[in-house]
Design goal:
There is one protein chain. The protein has 458 residues and is α/β, with parallel strands linked by helices. The chain is 29% helix and 25% strand. It is built from 13 helices and 23 strands. The strands form 6 sheets. The protein has a 4-stranded mixed beta sheet. The radius of gyration is 21 Å and the shape is globular. The N and C termini lie close together (8 Å). Bound molecules: shikimate-3-phosphate (S3P). The site of shikimate-3-phosphate has 10 residues, from helix 1 and helix 6.
Length: 458
C-alpha cells in the first residue's frame, strides 16, 4: 500500500480516534478474568487488540462467544496487505463486547499455541496472567515480535515461582504457571508492560507483590485494578506499585480514544498550522507528556477532562493553529513517558529551524522495528536530515524536500512519515502504510476527512 501525500493543505474539523490500545488490552484481560458479566464499548478494531482477544478466546471458554461475536461484527480490521484492507476505513463506533467471566478459574489449557501476532503488549501481559494459571502454555508471535526482548518479563515471573522459558531471550515464551508468591521487583528498564505483567501475576500470588521503577510509566493497570476494588497501593511519586491477591467482578466501561493515535493528528495539525479538535480522548497524565514537549516546540493545545471511565480520565483535546515550530531536546528521563510518541515528535522536529535531540532513546531500537535507525533513514529519504547514533537521535530541522520511503512494517513509523510529509516542500510517497492498522485503523481516512491530500497509488 503506497500513498502519495501532497503537502500544502490546511486541515480542519473534529475527530474521534479509535480506542486506546493499551487500555483495550488490559480491559479485555480483566473482563475475561472477572467473575460475572462485563460490557466494554468502543474497543478499537486494531490488529494488536484483535491478538489479545483471540488469545483470550482460546484460554477462557466462557468468554469465547462474546469475543467471537465482537470480532465477527466489528473486530479487528483485515490483515494489512490483504485485498480487503481499505485505506479509507472508518474510525467509527464498534459494537460493544459483552462477556461472562468465571474469574481466573475460568482460564483453561488452550488447545494450541497462543498467537500474539505483532503485539508485544499481548505477549508480555498474558505471560503475567498465565504465570498464575496451573498449566503450560506457549506464546508465539510474528517475525518482528519474535526478535523482541522477553527475558525482561520472564525473569520477574520466575522469581514469583512460575517456570518461564524463552528461546535465547525471545519468543516462543513457554509459561508453566501456578504456586506464585509476592516479590519486590526493581525493574532495570522502566516498562509498563512488564510492570503490568507482574501486577496481573500478583493478583494470584501469596503475599504482597511490589514493582519499583526508576521513572513513572503508564498506569492503566493500576487505575483499572483500583477502580475494580483491588488492594493496590501507589507511592506518592507513582514509581512504586503494590498489589495483593484479589478476584475482581465484572465491570462496564467505554474505552477512551487513544492519546498516542491522537498525537499523530495533533502533529498533523501543528505541521499544517491548522486548528483541530479531538473528542473523547484518554487524558491520563501518564500518556500526555507529548503535549508538554509540543508546547516547548511552539504548539499550543488544550485538554479538558469531562468524565472518567474505569478510573481513566476522558475529554477533548484542542489544537490551536501553530505559527512556527521550534527545536527541542528530549532528556533521557522523558523517554519512558514519550515511548510511543517519539516517531511523531521526530516528524515535527524535522520542520523546526534547528537541531532536535532525542537522548538515551535506545528502547526505540527494540520496538516493532528499530525506530531510531528507521526514523533517521526515513527522514533522510524524504529530503530531510537526521542521524541515529548509539542511543541518540538527532533530527536536523529545516523541513523536508520530498521523496519516498518505506514504513518498515511498523505502524508508528508509517503514520509518522505520512504526517511529516504533510509539510514537505514537494509530494512524498510512503510505502507500507497499511501497518497503521496495528493501532489506528482508519488513519488515512481520518486525515483525508480533515482535508489532507492523500492518494492511494496503484
Ligand atoms: C505499552 C507500553 C509501552 C508502549 C506500548 C504499549 C503498554 O511499551 O510502547 O506501545 O500498553 O503497556 P513498554 O512498556 O515496553 O515501554
Amino acid at each position: 500500500m503506497r500513498l502519495r501525500i501532497t503537502p500544502g493543505s490546511n486541515l480542519s474539523g473534529e475527530l474521534t480516534v479509535p480506542g486506546d490500545k493499551s487500555i483495550a488490552h488490559r480491559w479485555l484481560i480483566l473482563s475475561s478474568t472477572a467473575s460475572g458479566r462485563s460490557l466494554i464499548e468502543d474497543l478499537p478494531r486494531s490488529l494488536d487488540v484483535g491478538s489479545t482477544a483471540s488469545c483470550l478466546a482460546a484460554l477462557v471458554p466462557s468468554v469465547r462467544p462474546g469475543l467471537e461475536a465482537w470480532s465477527r461484527n466489528d473486530g479487528p480490521a483485515a490483515k494489512p496487505g490483504s485485498s480487503t484492507w481499505n485505506a479509507h476505513d472508518r474510525t467509527g463506533v464498534t459494537s460493544p463486547l459483552e462477556v461472562q467471566g468465571q474469574g481466573r478459574a475460568g482460564i483453561h489449557l488452550p488447545s494450541h499455541d497462543l498467537d500474539c501476532g505483532n503485539s508485544g503488549t499481548t505477549m508480555r501481559l498474558l505471560a503475567g496472567v498465565l504465570a498464575g494459571a496451573p498449566f503450560t502454555s506457549v506464546l508465539v508471535g510474528d517475525a518482528s515480535l519474535s526478535t523482541r526482548p522477553m527475558e525482561r518479563v520472564a525473569e520477574p515471573l520466575r522469581q514469583m515461582g512460575a517456570s518461564v522459558t524463552t528461546r535465547g531471550g525471545h519468543a516462543p515464551v513457554k509459561v508453566d504457571g501456578g504456586g506464585l508468591h509476592g516479590i519486590t521487583y526493581r525493574a532495570p528498564v522502566p516498562t509498563a508492560q512488564v510492570k503490568s505483567a507482574i501486577l496481573f501475576a500478583g493478583l494470584e500470588a501469596e503475599g504482597v507483590t511490589t514493582v519499583e521503577e526508576m521513572v513513572w510509566t503508564r498506569d492503566h493497570t493500576e487505575r483499572a485494578l483500583r477502580a475494580l476494588g483491588a488492594p493496590v497501593s501507589i507511592s506518592a511519586d507513582r514509581t512504586t506499585v503494590s498489589v495483593e491477591a484479589f478476584q475482581h467482578e465484572g465491570f462496564e466501561g467505554r474505552v477512551p480514544g487513544d492519546p498516542s493515535s491522537a498525537a499523530f493528528i495533533v502533529a498533523a495539525a501543528a505541521l499544517t498550522g491548522s486548528e483541530v479538535t479531538l473528542r473523547g480522548v484518554g487524558l491520563n497524565p501518564s500518556r500526555l507528556h507529548f503535549l508538554d514537549v509540543l508546547a516547548r516546540m511552539g504548539v499550543r493545545t488544550e485538554a479538558r477532562v469531562d468524565h472518567e471511565s474505569v478510573g481513566e480520565p476522558v475529554g477533548d483535546l484542542w489544537v490551536a493553529p501553530t505559527e512556527g515550530i521550534r527545536s527541542t531536546t528530549i532528556a533521557a528521563e522523558e523517554v519512558p513517558l514519550l515511548i510511543d510518541e517519539i516517531p511523531v515528535l521526530a516528524a515535527v522536529a524535522s520542520r523546526a529551524p534547528g537541531d532536535s535531540w532525542f537522548l538515551d532513546a535506545g528502547e526505540l531500537r527494540v520496538k516493532e522495528s528499530d525506530r531510531l535507525a528507521g526514523l533517521a533513514e526515513g527522514l533522510r529519504a524524504l529530503g530531510g536530515n537526521a542521524v541515529a547514533e548509539g542511543e541518540d537521535l538527532v533530527v536536523a530541522g529545516g523541513g523536508l524536500r520530498g521523496g519516498r520511503t518505506y514504513a518498515g512494517g511498523d505502524h508508528r513509523m508509517a503514520m509518522a512519515f505520512v504526517v511529516a510529509a504533510l509539510s514537505a516542500s514537494e509530494p512524498c510517497e510512503i510505502d507500507g502504510v497499511e501497518a497503521a492498522d496495528v493501532s489506528f485503523p482508519g488513519f488515512v481516512g481520518a486525515l483525508s476527512a480533515l482535508g489532507a491530500r492523500i492518494e492511494v497509488l496503484p
